[in-house]
Specification:
Oligomer: single chain
Number of strands: 12
Helix content: 40-55%
Shape: globular
Order of helices and strands: HEEEHHEHEHEHEHEHEHEEHHHE
Radius of gyration: 28 Å
């Protein structure tokens, strides 16, 4: 009997030692004796940004992001599309933050629970570009709406993005209730393409087009188009950053998204944005919103 008890006692001690050893890999004891979990998860150093084509095609993000990556060690994966598609990627859980320029859509994204906060931080202007001889005579128009009416009256060819992008939505807002029907109004071309493709199409067809100024300036040497109307109040183009909501969406790199937003709205990035375009185009392509 004594031998059996001794054997059982030894077995209990072995099992207790094994349990303590196993638990030491996943827990630690504080000075007060409380046990706290230790995580072995590595920090996610990849940030997924879904953005509009203009900030990418204009060269702004390729100019800014290498600086951020070098300073922080993060890697930013950029997916660019029209604002509608860029927001949808985030809704589908394929982005950690978005950088877009369509206020109403951004507010819906947040009210539906997908975004945390809308942070407007920079702007530029849409411009109406077209053939150098300005066949519809829009040059002296006071607003873009006036210019669009003259284009419609003259039935001058106009290339629209037609892709639910921020630029397309801005165009539709300018048209208001007079938006043309591309099936009936043959002078109005709904391209369903990005900004660069639409500018190329407008150049080839001698058409007018609404574009963000930054993309036009970055492509102007390849285009047979001029800026005909610029910087009217109804063509201001505001860009916002929005962190995706990890409480609504799975797999969001919240820490990375916050780090990128903080950097993009900080002093260093602000200086870089303010200088971007001056050397090559003689003017900045984007302007900062005063804090």
């Amino acid at each position: 009997m004594k031998k059996l008890l001794a054997l059982l006692l030894a077995l209990v001690m072995v099992l207790s030692f094994a349990a303590c050893k196993g638990s030491s890999d996943t827990a630690t004891t504080t000075e007060a004796g409380a046990t706290t979990a230790v995580t072995d998860e590595k920090e996610n150093m990849t940030i997924r940004m879904s953005t509009t084509t203009s900030v990418n095609d204009s060269g702004l993000l390729p100019y800014l992001l290498p600086v951020f990556e070098k300073e922080t060690g993060y890697k930013v994966e950029v997916q660019s599309a029209g604002t509608g598609a860029a927001i949808q990627k985030a809704v589908d859980g394929n982005a950690d933050l978005i950088l877009v320029h369509a206020k109403a859509s951004e507010e819906t994204f947040i009210s539906d629970g997908y975004g945390v906060e809308r942070i407007p931080f920079m702007y530029n202007y849409f411009v109406v570009v077209g053939p150098k001889d300005d066949p519809a005579g829009i040059k002296d128009s006071e607003t873009a709406a006036d210019a669009f009416k003259k284009i419609a009256d003259a039935k001058a060819k106009f290339v629209s993005r037609g892709d639910e992008s921020g630029t397309h939505k801005a165009e539709l807002k300018i048209w208001g209730e007079t938006v043309p029907d591309s099936e009936k109004d043959t002078w109005y071309v709904s391209a369903g393409q990005g900004m660069g493709s639409c500018l190329t199409m407008a150049s080839e067809q001698g058409a007018y087009c609404l574009t963000d100024k930054a993309t036009f300036l970055s492509m102007k040497d390849k285009l047979d188009l001029d800026v005909i109307l610029s910087e009217s109040e109804d063509m201001k183009n505001t860009y916002s950053l929005i962190e995706c909501n990890s409480e609504k969406l799975d797999g969001i790199n919240t820490k990375g998204a916050k780090a990128l937003i903080e950097w993009m709205t900080g002093d260093e990035a602000s200086k870089l944005i303010a200088e971007y375009g001056k050397e090559q185009y003689g003017q900045p392509l984007f302007f900062l919103i005063e804090k």
